[in-house]
Amino acid sequence: MRHRLLACCCALLITLSPATLARETAQQAPIIDYGSRFLPQVARQAMVVGPERLAAEIGLDILREGGNAVDAAVATGFALAVSYPRAGNLGGGGFMLIHLDEEDRQTFIDYRETAPAAATRDLFLDEQGEIDRQRSYFSHLSSGVPGTVAGLILAQERYGTLPLPRVLAPAIALAEEGLEVSWALQFEIAARAEQLRKNPEAARLFFKPDGSAYRMGDHWRQPELAWTLRQIAERGREGFYQGPVAERIVAEMERGGGLISEQDLADYRALEREPVRGSFQGFEVVSAPPPSSGGVHILQMLNLLEGFDLKGMGHNSAAYIHHLAEAMKLAYADRSQFLADPDFVEVPVAQLTSKSYAERQRALVDPGRATPSSEIAPGRVLVQESHDTTHYSVADRWGNVVTNTYTLNFSFGSHIAVPGTGMLLNNEMADFAARPGSSNAFGLVEHEANRIEGGKRPLSSMSPTLVLRDGEPWLATGSPGGSVIITTVLQTLLNAMVFDMNVAAAATESRVHHQWLPDRLILESGISPDTRRLLESLGHNVDTTPRTLGRTQSIMLEGGYLYGATDPRRLGGHVAGE
Ligand code: GLY
Questions:
Q1: How many CB atoms lie within 10 A of CB 254?
Q2: How confident is the model at residue 439 (pLDDT cuts 50, 70, 90)?
Q3: Per the count of CB atoms within 10 A, which of 15, 100, 268, 563 is most buried?
Q4: Domain that holds residue 38
């Protein structure tokens, strides 16, 4: 149940003066769970919630100057390429979900990378037919044709209001003039230092001339990245996909044995698609369509879970987690079989997201026993890899909302930088099924539908999602985390829709994950040992992880206020609002 919080929420309001606030709260108090351990930040007009402070503040500046949510999202996306190099990018790809308030509709920009035309099904198999993980994760062959620049520009051209050079200017200045290294940036580079040092250009970009690491408080400039951003500001998408930037990418591909050609770059197109839609207990849920698997499976699991009394079970009780896990297994089993690039494969979206399918699947859930994954399909072994992606959400004063997830795949992608561009290459080709039936870097088993084919988009889990209540945007969210993105977003939605949590509590409460294969239920360490024992007694193979599963950056819109939260259990997230 929600409680109305009065004066004690003053400290959380970002810009309202205490006097204004006292007056306004008396009339219309912001709704925050009084007594929650986790409280959101609150704003009235504009908000950007992202993984890094400088880029979020740049987005807010754009909103202050009269830009809309799309302008701010594009500016934040380009700025993160400078300030958050582990996942912010020019060399990767992603998905943007946009709510256009005046038109009362949502649209979706797919800027997922594509396989180079010369890529073939067995690209990552060695002579014995085994998957060469090194080649698929950390070589020039790992990179798909980057989509980020085309995607951000498409969004800007169709739905932004400011000129492109204006939204790129802050990112250019940040790269040109430099930034002060934060603790988070120092930590992120250190975590991947060994692999980054293997590529001479990445080593030159991310370490000092004497080879030592940048430390918190150091000044870090990226003049080549500023040059690349200027090419885009001056010539739009041609500034990246043709001319000197494209030539440098192709030269690096030729030097390193990669496949991306001039033609691949010239041919790359971001696409506008219809998002997937469903309902849950009166809420409307809008999310990412294929080539993401996220939206389809979030809807599929919500449909299945809608038939159970989740609230009665209690949040994170053994019964609740058991039902989540059973829904997750069924959805991820379907993912392996049916989901892929819809321009290459027919994906049965309508069937997977239908209420009647959910009803049939619900009948498979035994409340008193965990169904072994082997009874759903054969098992595989999880390959543990560091994975990263990033998400941010934006809301403007006109009611427009943007929720965007983009990625290089792993933290720092392939760890290969293109000389003269300041830019890292993605390793998104690893999201294809290197050998149909095998597991990818996230342990996700994938079949024929997601085999490598020239021009195809690899299957993704990225799930920027919007929930509408009474037809109005209510919650914008999304997460990094590879295979855990889908289950992270699912639990965030359930926390808000079923358990009435405020957006900070919804982001921070402990999560669980099951992806069918391997047959392992992962609990964050905040789930109690008693609960773990009960889950084991139902037959679950349970592991507890000290890591956080995913990390949402969310905005909730309620009663004329914007409530923002980033999961505080990971470094560096920031809510910028006014
Ligand atoms: N590279 C992670 C994803 O797209 O799901």
A1: 12
A2: confident
A3: 563
A4: 8-15+26-272+398-435
